[in-house]
Design goal:
The structure is a single chain. With about 170 residues, the protein is an alpha+beta fold. The chain has 2 domains: about 20-80; about 85-160, Roll (PH-domain like). It has 5 helices and 6 strands; from the N terminus they run H-H-H-E-E-E-E-H-E-E-H. It has helices at about 20-50, 55-75, 75-80, 120-125, 150-160, and strands spanning about 85, 90-95, 100-105, 110-115, 125-135, 140-150. The strands form 2 sheets. Strands 1-2-3 form a 3-stranded antiparallel sheet. A hairpin with a 3-residue loop joins strand 1 (about 85) and strand 2. Helix 1 packs antiparallel against helix 3 (about 75-80). The longest helix is centred in the N-terminal third of the chain and has 31 residues, at about 20-50. The N and C termini lie far apart (about 45 Å).
């Protein structure tokens, strides 16, 4: 049997805070509600202008509503289970992705600076996002969402200290 291209995740991965599932559900529900309002107005307008197409318009609206329900209820819990990270003395490793697995390795020696982000919804759940920047373009960053606020601060301080006080962080 041929070896797998993607290594199996290490057993010592740390998971995000479980409250992130509720946060993701809330943010997806807000986005879905706005998009469903727009879709409903569009469906009603098209249905009144082209009454013969009403069954197709209604079918499309139901399909969109089903997709949004899936996005709100199933996807966040599954995305939470797919997320993990670990830190050792040399590297930060993250695993994420449901269909397309993304494994990122960030050598701590390449770390430029570390940011904490906590928007109003994140703060209401007691969560924060850790953003790690490396040398390069604005795409040269790694994000760890859904950390408990205290854990995010502890992790930031640990990563800054791991930089050894030189120009790396």
């Amino acid at each position: 049997m041929a070896p797998s291209v993607v290594p199996s995740p290490p057993q010592d991965l740390r998971h995000l805070d479980p409250r992130v599932v509720k946060l993701w559900r809330l943010t997806h529900a807000i986005a879905a509600a706005v998009l469903m309002l727009i879709a409903s107005i569009t469906a009603l307008t098209v249905g009144m202008v082209f009454p013969e197409d009403w069954p197709w318009v209604l079918a499309a609206w139901v399909a969109l509503a089903t997709l949004f329900l899936w996005l709100v209820f199933w996807y966040p819990a599954r995305a939470y289970r797919a997320w993990g990270y670990r830190i050792d003395e040399k590297v930060l490793e993250t695993h994420r992705g449901i269909w397309f697995r993304v494994i990122q390795l960030l050598p701590l020696s390449r770390l430029q600076h570390v940011d904490l982000h906590s928007g109003p919804l994140e703060r209401s759940f007691g969560l924060a996002t850790l953003i790690l920047h490396t040398a390069g373009t604005h795409h040269a960053m790694l994000t760890i969402p859904g950390l408990a606020a205290g854990e995010a601060v502890r992790l930031r301080d640990h990563l800054v200290a791991a930089g050894g006080g030189d120009d790396a962080v």
